[in-house]
Design goal:
The structure holds 2 protein chains of 2 kinds.
Chain A: H1 2-20, H2 34-45, H3 48-63, H4 74-88, H5 90-98, H6 100-124, H7 132-164, H8 167-170
Helix pairs in contact in A: 1-2, 1-3, 2-3, 2-6, 2-7, 3-4, 4-6, 5-6, 6-7
Chain B: H1 2-28, H2 33-67, H3 69-88, H4 94-113, E1 116-125, E2 134-137, E3 150-152, E4 157-164, E5 169-173, E6 180-185, E7 191-196, E8 201-206, E9 218-221, E10 235-243, E11 251-257, E12 266-272
Antiparallel strand pairs in B: 1-2, 1-12, 2-5, 3-4, 3-12, 4-5, 6-7, 6-9, 7-8, 8-11, 9-10, 10-11
Amino acid sequence: MLRVFNTSLFLFVIFMIQELVIARINFPINGFSLYLAALMVVLALEDRSGSLVFGFIGGVILDFSPSADSPLGQWALVLTIIGYLYSINKESIGDFLDSPFLFLLFVSFATALSLSIFLIIGAMLGANNGSFLHNLLLIFANSLWTILLTPLFLPLIIKVRKLLMSNRERI
Amino acid sequence: MARGGGNRSRLLLVLLLVSALFLITLDLRGINLASGVRSAVATVFSPVEKLASKIFSPIGDFTSDLRNFNQSKKRINDLTKEVDLLKSKEVLDEDLVSQVSQLKNLLDLAGRGGYKVVAAKVVNRGPAATFKQTITIDVGSTDGVAKNMTVISDGGLVGVVKSVTSNSSIVLLMSDPTFKVGVRIVGTQGIGVISGQGGDSYLLQLLDATGEIKVGDKLVARGSENGRPYVPGVPVGEVTKVASNASAITQNADVVGFVNIDRVSVVAVVVAPPKSDPRDSLIPRPAPTVTVLVTPTPTPSN
């Protein structure tokens, strides 16, 4: 329970950094979502149930974004699905964790996948998110920035996550 | 044991999916949880955003400068001269001077148009994951700002207020792909609709297929009923390319905005429309060229 609270708090802090600092940067083509990248790293490091729970909690936090226009719960649904995909592919993800570069590609792919699922569900709910080509470009740019920038904060996320775990979980 | 764990995971998955779908259903059925929660988050974020704006704006400015390097080079030359002048007058705060200049031009535009405005500072930009191009400004309902009000800067139209909290507002930028505004071509009176394309250029669809449109035509907002969401007469942009297609029902053209959305830092929200339509009076006019006529006089011969 404490771990759920701690990790949720950690995700909320990353969300605040995303909203207050990263969103301020004018990235070429379009932005980089530190929050999504960090959440993908956290989900990859969690166990099966953890991936599901933190996928949902991470989605609810993202649904709180003041500039979001989507129905409350859309991101929660998307990231629960992503959490589920993580949980059923836990063993394969273990292979990625051994190689930092593969892990980066994996995080970038997972970010792109979550954005794509968000768009698909949005389209099913009748949201207008602009042209297909434009969105494809946004997702591509986001993936590119994720590959380039994730190495800068990945060690920090892993370190903070270890600190958030209890002694027993660490063992 | 493993089966028990698997069942628990499946139960958890179903529970979480149902919760997410429940939230979406509530939202879509009009029980507006989202706006309440987001408004509360925005209210909490607002003071932190203002502080973060002061601390982190150099980072945003730096990346913006990298993107607009070519434009920046010319602007740097112009500004260097200006800064030298300002330094000589012992004015040290260049950032403040730039903002004051923008504000002066903005108030001048509002004054000429007869718009009642509330000036605001841009304190944040919307995150990429929302797929919306937005900015956050530091004025809200306590300043008289309400949803669907026009937002302008010194060059012209910037966007429209999308949501409001007590002391901040979120503005949907005209570059957003969902943004649409009715416009009128200055001079010819042809009307059309401009849509955001996600970047610096916009798409103009002329409603009259036989209407005339050419490169260099300037566009102003047509205005909405009671001035909301758009007040009339606000400069929008200039036609840069006309896509002529005889078989098309409407004529299309590429338009570049009068405002560089990436660099805008001071804006104003039009809280009351003008008493009369300013028509084309707000369109930026080219600076008049001075012609000097010299009549040679014969030099007296010795």
